[in-house]
Amino acid sequence: MALCGTLAAQGFPYQDASLPAEQRADDLLGRLSLEQKVSLMMNASPAIPELGIRAYDWWNEALHGAARAGLATVFPQAIGMASSWDEALLREVFDIASTEQRIKFIQYRRDPQGSPRYHGLTVWTPNINIFRDPRWGRGQETYGEDPFLTSRMGLAVVQGLQGPDSTKYDKLHACLKHYAVHSGPEGTRHQFDARDISWRDLAETYLYAFGDIISKSDVQEVMCAYNRFEGDPCCGSDQLLIQFLREKWGYKGLVVSDCGAIDDFWREGRHGTHLGDPETAVARAVRTGTDLECGSSYQHLMDAVKQGKLSEADIDVSLRRLLTARFRLGEMDPDENVEWNRIDEALLACDAHRAKALEMARESLVLLQNRDGILPLGKDIKVAVLGPNAADSVAMWGNYNGTPVRTVTALEGILAKVGGTGVTDPDHADVVIYVGGINPRMEGEQMRNSPEGFDRGDRTTIEFPRAQRAAIDSLARLGKQIVLVNFSGSAMGLLPETERCAAILQAWYPGEAGGTAIADVLFGDCNPSGRLPVTFYRSDADLPAFDDYNMAGHTYRYFTGDPLFHFGHGLSYSSFKYGRARVRNHELIIKVRNRSRVEGDEVIQVYMAKREDAGGPQKTLRAFRRVHVPARGSATVRIPLDATFYATYDEASGEMRATPGRFTVWYGHSAAPQDLRKLKIRKWK
After folding, report:
1. Mean pLDDT of the chain
2. 576-681: what fold?
């Protein structure tokens, strides 16, 4: 401690908060031994008291709220928030998540009880992988199957987490993951090689959101994925980490490995590219730009340097980025000197934050079917509430979640609407509300249990669970009107259910306020406005092989069949009509009118295809606007027709570029042909 006091009195440059973070990092770098440098490149970085460096754990999660560190506001799962198509609200949600994570950091620094993990300032979210196949268990963590929607929503997450550019310190650091070409299967991710991916699919689909968000934000972290890409593990891929990330996109932040991913280089039974040779493996990872390891393989870095496989200068390149990040966050400075550390701790899971969770839950719900206008229900009817998810609070949370003050289940929310007069015997009910589907204890990240229909977190079938299908069939045989509330983090095969149920509400995993939101929609206190961020296929027969990463046949952009529910689909209690769009001064002007007596939100979707692009997608999302339309009123939106709008894959350059040609533009309220109006644009210059 005396030495720390001496250093403080001397005032070395790295201790001077008025200097740029990069300059402070350079100064501190020169004062560290090689052994100290190596220790700071692992997620659980130890304290170095003689230099005033405190212990720090980089491993933190905030997928849909501050996670795994106790009390927090639990928002809907990411796939549900994607269904809102509401960038502004999503930004607010992650500003709240950022506030609550800062509070976790403050509280742990003051009273370090338990593990430091999940109490830091570097959160490993958003997951911007493309949800190309509904069987992937982690697809619930993403923003759907469309690259453009994923990019827009991912950007909002980054902006909400990291805070405004006007402050001295960053509020948090976000992390784009998993880079790249990763969307299952979970069971083979430590051996799988995503090979023979076309340049088109790379540019248009798998890398699009990464490059776009990096170009539009100062995102500070990227996480490299478990799988291999073209023979190399992603965390040791020169093509991904140097050619694309650093050289092409100009990324300046740090790269962190997925947890244990470096082990996959050299341990038997995994990728085995450096089998039995951890020193060469870690040298490869560092030289290609994996700066921080989540795991324990980087303990071999000292030996790698001693064996001449890596230089101390190579270590310095990575550590400079890590130290810069810690200085940017204020983590290296006295806690009281950082403005973000003065956040009122009473904000943690406060009423205002919980109200925002309800707002997002309402916007996340997607009304898939409403035959004969059975919804909204009257509050004076007798309802029977059945199904395995009706009273399951944990099913509301999704995965990578915090612990809410209170969770409102679907049953609780519904009973509150009908004055507690719900019944469990369907024989005496006017309407049966069946709350079913699957739950996050079944689908998720490389799970150990594999119940019927699942394999280590992935799904082996998209069909509705067999026992629940039989239960709904029995109810239908009684002649009951059935409203199905479906819980899942992914698209479900609901073909028999669409015939047997009058209405279907897709709830996803709607968070702590999900039960209230569900009841609000069912009983008309909230007009449903969610839109699908994925395609709902009719059955397993619609799906290509799970490990087929070529985009042909995948997602609405390349699927040539007739899906059960199209990408972008979602019903409303309002009735919207689109006028004929106009092009003026390089803007697409669209007017939508609400012909009903019910005010509501419409999500205006704009798709594009270049007619000369024979190998391209059938159509691809290029703009969307969520607008509130008063009863009997209208709203007008203006969409810029700029180079970004017209960008398609250019074979000559291998890039996404706007090149001259003839374009078809569709606009409407889903990707379904019957929901779209069309116009043709002859040429873009």
Report:
1. 96
2. Immunoglobulin-like (2.60.40)
